[in-house]
From TrEMBL:
InterPro entries: Acid_phosphat_B-like (IPR005519), Acid_phosphatase_pln (IPR010028), APS1/VSP (IPR014403), HAD-like_sf (IPR036412), HAD_sf (IPR023214)
Gene that encodes it: ga11508
Keywords assigned: Glycoprotein, Signal, Storage protein
SUPFAM superfamilies linked to this entry: HAD-like
Superkingdom to which the source organism belongs: Eukaryota
Entry's Gene Ontology molecular function annotations: acid phosphatase activity; nutrient reservoir activity
Coiled coil stretches, renumbered: none
PANTHER family hit by this protein: ACID PHOSPHATASE-LIKE PROTEIN (PTHR31284), VEGETATIVE STORAGE PROTEIN 1-RELATED (PTHR31284:SF19)
Signal peptide: none
Protein name stated in the entry: Stem 28 kDa glycoprotein
Role according to the record: May function as somatic storage protein during early seedling development.
Length: 252
């Protein structure tokens, strides 16, 4: 199985046609795996990303290898790069008010920071979510940055657009989240919004409510990026939204 170290290496550098799984030596994005045994895992992933597949709990067991090879291969980085290239082009086209109130909302998990070191050893989403184990991983503060998202973050700061992190992580994880973000090269954000302890509300309602508070405080949300549809649905969404790929889990 891949280790946290090897996963970080794949996030930090690209090599041609890498062998990305020691026990399952297949190449690249996982396309070869999509047709094995008649399992339409590539079509399943498309349905997930297009928001046609909703409410699912785990990656189908027969698609574990496919999702793992996609996430660790070149295709995931290429797909993410396309999204961020569009986001950067959009940001560069904006005419800002210049009053310091233009903000861009960023999700954290699988958007700004990658939890692949965790999911690579927990079935790439094919096993039921274990909150205890996942939170133990979060508290290590070792999640690597997603390179494409960090590129967008730095571009926005240079343009005078203030990043705001809005995450489903809870307040008791604030200190380690700040430490993790800074360790991975993020700095200069305007706000870090975490969920209060004990709050039980759907992600769309929670995040749209927090965006409304930003708007009520006079901020203009010029952009919004996340890996889940629940990161970018629900008014006010922001002037424009961007969806990063993530076939490992669903948050409604």
């Amino acid at each position: 199985m891949p280790t946290a170290h090897t996963v970080v290496e794949h996030l930090e550098e690209e090599v041609a046609a890498p062998v990305i799984h020691a026990l399952r030596p297949m190449l690249g994005s996982g396309g070869q795996l999509g047709s094995r045994a008649g399992v339409p895992c590539d079509s399943w992933r498309l349905a997930v990303e297009a928001y046609n597949m909703r409410g699912w709990k785990t990656v189908p067991a027969e698609c574990e290898c496919y999702v793992g090879h996609y996430m660790l291969g070149e295709q995931y980085r290429r797909d993410s790069r396309v999204v961020v290239d569009e986001a950067v082009a959009y940001a560069e086209s904006l005419k800002l008010a210049g009053n310091g109130k233009d903000v861009w909302v960023f999700d954290i998990d699988e958007t700004s920071l990658s939890n692949l070191p965790y999911y690579a050893t927990h079935g790439f989403g094919s096993r039921p979510y274990n909150a205890t184990r996942f939170n133990e991983y979060v508290m290590e503060g070792s999640a690597p940055a997603l390179p494409e998202t960090k590129r967008l973050f730095k571009k926005l700061v240079s343009l005078g657009i203030k990043p705001v992190f809005l995450t489903g992580r809870t307040e008791d994880q604030r200190a380690i989240t700040v430490k993790n973000l800074r360790r991975q090269g993020y700095s200069g954000w305007e706000k870090l919004l975490l969920k209060p302890l004990g709050v039980k509300v759907a992600a769309v309602a929670y995040k749209s409510g927090e965006r409304q508070k930003l708007q009520d405080a006079g901020y203009v949300i010029v952009g919004n990026i996340g890996d889940q549809w629940s990161d970018i649905l629900g008014a006010p969404e922001g002037a424009r939204t961007f969806k990063l790929p993530d076939p490992m889990y669903y948050i409604g």
